[in-house]
Specification:
alpha+beta; five-stranded mixed β-sheet; 16 helices; 63% helix; 9% strand; transmembrane helix; membrane; transmembrane
Length: 435
Amino acid sequence: MKHLFNKLITFINSIRSNIAFYPTLLAAFGFNFAFFMIYLEDRGISTYLLEAVPVLVVDNGNTALALLSSFITGLISMMVFSFSMVMVLLNQASSNYSPRLLPGLISDKNHQVILGIYLFTILYCIFILFSIQPTGDKYQIPGFSVLLGILFTAVCICAFIYFIHNISHNIQINNILDKIFHLAEKRLKHLIDSEEMGEKDFPDTSGWYEYHTEKTGYFQNIALTNVVDICEKKETKLEILPVKGIFVLKGIPVFKSEKELDKETIKDFLSNFNFARGELVEDNYTLAFKQITEIIVKAMSPGINDPGTALNGIDYLMELFALRMKKKDESIISRDEKNYVKLTTVNFEELMYNVISSIRVYGKHDVSLVQKLSTMFLYLKSQEAVHSYYYEIIDKEATTLLEDARDAITNKSDLKIIEKLARKLSLNTNKFQLE
């Protein structure tokens, strides 16, 4: 039962990024709520309220029909406009910033809830409209239900105003960068806190048994609670081989086990691996580095030419790298001070190289960008690191950046700035001096 519950939670987390998740839930609720109100109308709720509080009940059939018909037509138009605005937002973000931003924007809970409110009200009004039946020369009027339709429509209008505000806010690059940063910061802090528990040593896995998956896709997440439960039951330990975010091919080993496993146990382990065609920062903090780097690179490309955005992006990278320096290069999952699972993660050297090498291509000729990156290196060297060799990696990337900048820049005044930056970073200034 516990395993099924954990799998259900994992499944819900994986589909929450779908733009139809909350709209589908609210539409289903609106459908059922309409029939619930029809049931109450059959029990005479409107008749009772008409006698007790007549101001709350619509008692004219033609008025009720006209209101509900107008609400349905107006709300459908409003919903179409809102969906069009979402598509414009996604297209602009993909063109101007990075296609990797789309999963995060699509999974925006506020947009999903607003679209769900529209669908809830539309379905509610449609079925209440059908319940208005003529009896002789009069209509059987669900007066209180019509009043609720009026209130729900007013809520939709307020939601639409908020939607316009929210979508204009979300498309601003500063807000996009800020959202990416805070999601990655939250994930990194969680991982750093989890490293403080349990033993630190994990046995050598070179001779362990390898097992592969029959699925393909991006390795998005894993239900670690379930995996540890199975490890405890089978008295074994695991090493998860793929890095989160990597594309896993069918037949490629995905985990190693200390003990040989039967087919049923292998199936149980693999059922806790979540493969998808997209990625979210909440599950994989390295995606934040990729997204911010791509925003910086696109901003510095000749087609966009927006150095201000690139400089802002480096500020966020600076904070994320400083936080990453507090995390170890390997993650070990423990329970009751006993290690069970070793996760393969992107090490600090690989992460920094991938980020800086991408920026160097478009930024090495721009002195302002080189200065900003040098400021980042200087700041990182002053931060506390969990491993001392992190500082050597920073010096290596700083040296490579300034060497490329020296080769790309010809102006003597700019070259003097490069030499000063090398001196500030305590690098070998001989290779940066003017000839």
